[in-house]
Design brief:
By secondary structure, the chain is an alpha/beta fold. 23% of the residues lie in helices and 38% in strands. It has three helices and eight strands; from the N terminus they run E-E-E-H-E-E-E-H-E-E-H. The longest helix is centred in the last third of the chain and has 16 residues.
Length: 150
Amino acid sequence: MVVVIQRCFKSSVIIDNETIARIDRGILVLLGICNGDKIKDADYIVNKIISLRIFNDQKGKMNLSIKDINGSILIVSQFTLCANVKKGSRPSFLNAASPKIGKELYKYLISSLVKTGIDIKTGKFGAMMDVELVNEGPATFIIDSKVLIN
């Protein structure tokens, strides 16, 4: 599982010119679910997202988590994060999980985050979405569950 986490002042998802999700200060999570990903990958990512201290404290140091600032999380599925671009000029998406497995893990990850009490908003799995972001910092982090838990 690969996620790109972006600290933001605000973020939203638009489908067919309609805003379907919007958050103010918090985290935009771009979520790539890859072949071989399991529940343990989702659990690891959830724990990382809620515990990362990526928000500045009063001294300007990254010491605060999403919970500490009472922020929100916007989750957007993005299978292109699993792309292989090593050969040629056209990305291969063979590393992405099937839509069935991807959707199951996407829903599991969301339900796990909801249980933490953090305000969670989502895009729409498999949809063509326009994602708006006002990045705070900018501060962007990449987490790959396979690199970190294996």
